[in-house]
Amino acid sequence: MHKVQLGKSDLQVTPICLGTMTFGEQVNEAAAHAILDRAVELGINFLDTAEMYAVPARAATFGATETILGNWFASRPGMRAKLVLASKVAGPSRGMPWIREGAGMSSADIVASCEASLRRLRTDAIDLYQIHWPERHVPAFGALYYDPAKETTQTPIREQLETLATLVRQGKIRHVGLSNETPYGVHEFVRLAEEHGLPRVASIQNPYCLLNRSYENALDETCDRLDVSLLAYSPLGVGLLSGKYDASGITGPDAPAGTRLSYESVRKQRWGRPDALAAARRYNQLARDHGLSPTQMALAFCYGRRCVASTIIGVTSLAQLEEDCAVWGTPLAPELLAGIDQLRWEMRDPAV
């Protein structure tokens, strides 16, 4: 695999990133280490994690993923220097009081979260430190509408950037990124960084897949003009686009045990909507009609998009890792791409 530059930073990453949020929940430590080893053998140099992982988020597994990664780095001398490591500071609580006291994301919270992540990861620096979701109120994780009446922001964007700048000066992080952001947020972070000499965001990590292409409607222009790279997460729509839920009669509560959709907290989100499952079944059949597996079509779509710098794949087995990486370089015929666009026109973005 070639490497791509993230934004205006000096980070050079592979166009496939290994997401690790299943480590510590669906994947035990030994299996996680085997997956990490194989990912490196396959040429991946980019790992993504977060302080709140594993998912589904709960107090018992908070920080478990970073701990597993830290143990892997410690057991493989020299490996850390070969890889680009991304992690995230959680935004306001969203019903997860075990992350921090209070409902906000203060400057002190950012510093404390970063230092705790460094300890768990057993590293001196995080290459890409991302704000997991905005400190201010935004429609995200399935919410459709912005409501200014719900605003509770306490830490202005400039103050957040100044805190991140301090961490950069201290050598604890190298570059900064955003996640689950809006066009306004990206523009403000870039504007304030350039105006005040603060760290410029290199990337945005947002959902992007056949069931949610909302990024293309506004964020695409913002990020393209401002040179902010997209890290696409959930390219398989938490498995809906793998075909595993296509059997007749399966709904969220009937999902096979151990799959993402079998968790009630996931079903309550955008991915558990009946129209998301119905749309996935139509995309999956379109793939089969063109001689591809649903996974092949869904990943090839993300891998080949102009707007995607790196696609984050989350796996629970070596077999899934091999399958996802084998899709790299698979072309989609023009008539298939037209069919994908036609389905989107009919069903829009059911998992937005």
User: In what order do the strands lie side by side in the largest sheet?
Assistant: 3-4-5-6-7-8-9-10
Supply the number of helical segments: 11
Uncertain segments of ≥5 residues (pLDDT<50)? Answer: none
CATH superfamily: NADP-dependent oxidoreductase domain
* Proportion of beta-strand residues: 5-15%
Give me the CATH architecture, please: Alpha-Beta Barrel
Tell me the overall shape.
globular
GO molecular function, one term: oxidoreductase activity
Protein name: Aldo/keto reductase
Organism: Comamonas antarctica
InterPro entries: AKR_Detox_Biosynth (IPR050523), NAD(P)_OxRdtase_dom_sf (IPR036812), NADP_OxRdtase_dom (IPR023210)
